[in-house]
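Researcher: Please translate sequence to structure tokens.
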Amino acid sequence: MGVGGLTVRRHIVVEGRVQGVGYRASCARRAEALGVSGFVRNTADGSVEAAFEGEEGAVAAMIDWCRKGPAWAAVRHVEVADEQPQGARGFVVS
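Model: Translation complete:
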């Protein structure tokens, strides 16, 4: 990370039909393909929460992907907030 671009971290909350549709697993595959670190998890209110850390363009591509999600998802809203990079390595699904 950091080579070829600024390292950034974004925290997101995805609302809609995003649980039980393969959202987290698809998100993790996409993040790993883009070289983005962080996490994705379901929340008690039915949304999905994630943090993406990596090269600015790759993180932006992840956020764009999250606005649509996998085929069975129906994303209604994506909230994005900037965070300080934490030196995250790897991607965790919980």
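Researcher: Any highlights?
Model: The mean pLDDT is 95.
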